[in-house]
Write a structure and sequence with these properties.
244 residues, 3 helices
Length: 244
Amino acid sequence: MATFRRGAADTDRLGAVPAPRTSTPARRAALLAGVALLGVLTACGTDNSGAGTPQKLPGTAEPASGDRTTDAGSPTTANPTGSAAPTGSGTTSGSASASSGSGSTGTRCHTSELRASVGNNDPGAGQENFPVVLTNGSGRSCTLRGYPGAAFVDASGKQLGPDPRRSSGTPTTVTLAPGQSAWSGLTFSNPEISGAGTATPAALLVTPPDEKDSLKVTWTQGKVPVSGNASSVSLTVVQAGTGA
């Protein structure tokens, strides 16, 4: 009986064991798993170059970078050293200025700053001559210029006689420091010689130059002319001193 031997090819052809077949549900599950894995790998490969950069969201401020911007409503100091010279400021040295309290040589003397007096008579050639003295009683220097005013009055304050006339002369400005004086000559004819009507005044009212208020000086020098052709009284311009 003949013996048949199988070759390797026959063995492979006839004896090959078919591979077990996978069920359809299993293949489907595997396919889904593969798709999911592919999605994960794709996500991991996405460009991440923007990582670490703050994202600016609508209505949200960017994170501070470290350099703070000063608030527009914050107060600022123009000169923190405090050495700026004040603007619009005037001179306040107090040296020879009208507002320094020491007075100015160009400031007129006011009635309230003066004292009035009448010096002794210095008669001559039928004339009676009295110095009317104005003394600076204030604490500042002031000036007098021109003619004072004068009027004899009785005890009731009524004027006696006409207003004095002004003698010819050139006015000069007299500066009075505190305590200094200026004088004006009051002159009239001796009534006993002139025959003018007379009266004995109670006082002489003296008005400083360019002022309206008067100073009252008691009159103790006897009768003065108040009527008639020789009743005129005259005054000279003020000059420095007391007329003594």
